[in-house]
Design goal:
With 312 residues, the protein is mostly beta strands. The protein has one domain. 4% of the residues lie in helices and 50% in strands. The chain has helices at residues 88-92, 242-248, and strands at residues 6-12, 30-31, 34-45, 60-73, 96-99, 102-105, 116-122, 125-141, 147-162, 184-186, 193-199, 202-208, 218-226, 229-234, 252-259, 263-274, 278-282, 285-294, 306-311. The strands form two sheets. It has a 17-stranded antiparallel sheet that branches. The two termini are 41 Å apart.
Amino acid sequence: MLTEKTLLMAKIESLATYGTDSEPDEDDDIVVVHNLSVTPNTTFNDTQGLDCSMSPRSGTIGRQYLDITFDHEIQTGSGATPTVLPCDALLKACGYKWAAGVYTPFSTYPAAASSATMYMYLDGMLWKTTGARGNVEFTFTAGEPAIASFTFQGLYVGGFTAAAFPTGCTTEASKPLVAINKALAWDGEAPEAESLSFSLNNTLFARPSLDDAATYGIAGIDITGRAGEGSMNPMASTTIGYLTAFNAGTVKALSYTLADVDASVAFELPKVQFTNLTPGDRSGTRIFDLPFKISRSLVAGDDELKITVTEV
């Protein structure tokens, strides 16, 4: 079995039937990923009963769910849905909603919270999970493909089965968007930064259940909170107001846009607040390491991060 031969398919489930296999297929639901890891999160119970021997008895298997992580090189949509990203199902299962080319977070749980079924082919092994929800971190490094790093928890459905790749599983994926177009803005300034990253930092909760044997003691995966944060590392400056904003606790807007010949993807954080300012070094040049928190802009919230996909 070759790690190079790995395939992920993901499809949103019906809101009315959480955890029911939505049967993703190779025609519509392949998401090109790398660094895929699938790990059963299993509670093993040691038997506690004592007698005249120090030898342990065999234990029992308790609650189980799957931990899933992978990276996706951000790409634009194509065909009839150019403003829908190829990772659309994954974003929705990470607490985003989509409307007219714009992704924003939302807080209506559990009634309107999307979940995903995932099929993960590992060259002969097929792992499945349902009811998956997660978190995504966006990372931009100068001159490199923009990366969305996903962390999911999903219901355990018995491990893996022996399975060949589906017919026609190779895809003509669009090229990754490269972080190189200099469209970084903070408070009306254009910082010269090597890297930028941020995430909603969703809190995931695998809900225990006494009487739900079909899901191995877990009734569902919920997103129970979020506390967005990020960081950037611009060249040090005494004229750009990093220190003033840090000392005053002032919130400022931050944005970055990716683009190719087909579409642009704009990331907007209307209120970021620096939590520290540390002088650093980059090959003999002074920089600032600037971690920040992300907060709501409107009173109603659900607007601390907006992703807008626009067809060129």
